[in-house]
Every structure is written in structure tokens, then in C-alpha cells.
């Protein structure tokens, strides 16, 4: 497990932060899957979305909307994938909560249907 001392999200440089509020910060992903791929990260070291207080959760929701507005202005994506990995079985690798905001663009995938279902490719195509 990631401890606060070894956590890369607890050691962020101020220059990496593009937005924030009292509870969370936003950075651009260092290994983006799309233009504008961002991470919303609590300032408090928690591993899971389920560990947030109601106040922190509401602040995350507000910051998600602000992040979308910024990305809409900067990059004009056609859609978004929003993702959270919780636990090793869900392939969480950094055990400090981070919410992925991945802008999507027309033509970035040949057939984008199925979205996040592609974590199980054999189950992604459900419309045939």
C-alpha cells in the first residue's frame, strides 16, 4: 500500500497543480491517454473514493464540473470518460484516490462504443 510518505500525490509540486479547492487539486496526467487527461486528487491521503467525507465528496463533484468547463474551453472534446480504480482487483496502483477525467474526441477510436467495458474486452461488445 502507498503511505503518505511514499505517495507521489502527497508530494506534488505547486507548478503541477492546474486547479483546486479546499479539499482537492487537479493536475494533468503525466501519462495521458488523451489530450487534457486530468486527475482530481484529494489533499488528504485516502486510498478510496469511499473514504471521503460527504463534504469532501461534494467538493470533488464541484471540482469535476470546473475541470470539465476548463477542458471544454481549452480542447473542445466531444465527450468524457470519468474513472476511478478502487483496490488492487480494479488495478489501482497508487493507493491515494485519484479520479481520471479523460476527454474524448471524435475519431480517437475507430468504434468507441462500450467505453469502460473494454477493461474486459470479451464483454465490451454487447450490442450484436
UniProtKB/TrEMBL annotation:
Q: Where is this motif: Histidine triad motif?
A: 96-100
User: Matching Gene3D superfamilies, A to Z?
Assistant: HIT-like (3.30.428.10)
Which Gene Ontology molecular function entries are recorded, alphabetically?
hydrolase activity
Residue ranges of domain HIT in the record: 5-111
SUPFAM superfamilies in the record:
HIT-like (SSF54197)
Q: Has the keyword Hydrolase been applied to this entry?
A: yes
Q: Which domain of life is it from?
A: Bacteria
Q: What keywords is this UniProt entry annotated with? A: Hydrolase
Protein name, entry field: Diadenosine tetraphosphate (Ap4A) hydrolase
Please report the organism this UniProt entry assigns to the protein: Thiothrix caldifontis
Q: Lineage of the native species?
A: Bacteria, Pseudomonadati, Pseudomonadota, Gammaproteobacteria, Thiotrichales
